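Example (one chain per record):
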Amino acid sequence: MPDCPPLLAPLLSLFGAVPLDCLQLRFMQQALLGLLLLCPMTAALGVQVVHFRMAFFSDAIGHSAFAGAALGLMLAVDPMLAMPFFGVLVGLAVMAVQRRSALSSDTAIGIVFSAVVAFGLAVVSRAPGMARTVQQFLYGDILTISANELVMLALLGLAALIFQIAGYNRLLLIALNPIMARASGIRVALWQYLFAGLTALVVMFAVRAVGVLLVTALLIVPAAAARHFARTAGGLFWWAQLISVTSGVAGLLLSAQPWLATASGATIILVACLWFALGALLRHDAVE
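Predicted structure:
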C-alpha cells in the first residue's frame, strides 16, 4: 500500500484479514474505515440535532454541498475544499438567523435552505457542463473515498470527540432550557455556533458517503431508533452509536454481495430503518 499513510496501513491490513472476499479489495477497506470514522460522529450529532429539533438543519447543510461544489468548480477550486468551507458558512448563517430573529428554527433553516438551493441552481445554470459533475453529490459514493480524505476524517473525528467530551452535557442543557443554561454560566451562543460549524463539517463528509438525498437520514434515523431502546440520556447516546455503526458496516458489506448489489449509501440507510422498525415493534409490544 505505497500511497497509504503509515497510520492507516495497519488498519486496512486488519480489514483484509477478515475472511470476506469483498474486504480483500483496497477500496472496500478504505470505505469500511471511512464509515467506522464517520458513523460515530453522525450518531452523536444526530442525537443533538434531535434534541434541538433541527432535523431540517442537516438537509440544508447537505444541499449546500451542491452549491459549494458548483462554486468550487466555477472558481477552479477543488470541490472537496469548497464544500466544507461553504457548508460551515451555511451552518453559521442558519444559527445566526435563528438567534437574531423571532423565527422558529424550522423557519430560519427553511429560509437559508431556499437561498442555498437557489444559489446552487443559479451557479450551475451559468455553466451547464457542471451539472453532470455536481450530480455525483446527490447520491454519494463511500467506495471512492481516498486515503487523504480518511486522514481528514480521522482529524475531524478527534475534534468531534473533544467537542463531545467538553460540550455534551452543556448542549443537552441548552436544548432543554437555554435560559437556565445561560444562568448556569454556559456560553450558549458560543456552543451553538460550535455545534453548527462541527455539524456542517460532518454533514459534508456524510454527503460523500450517502449523498445529499440521504444525508439527513444518516443523522436522524439512528438517533430516532435509539429512542425506542434507551431509557436515559446517556443510553440514548450509546444506542445511537451502536445503531449507526452496525448500520454502516452491515449496509456496506451487504451492498457488496453479488446477490444484492445495491448502492452502499441506500443500503446503510435501509439497515438503520430496520433498526427503527424493530425498536418500534418491541416498544409497541412492551406497551401492550
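Caption: DSSP finds twelve helices and no strands in the chain.
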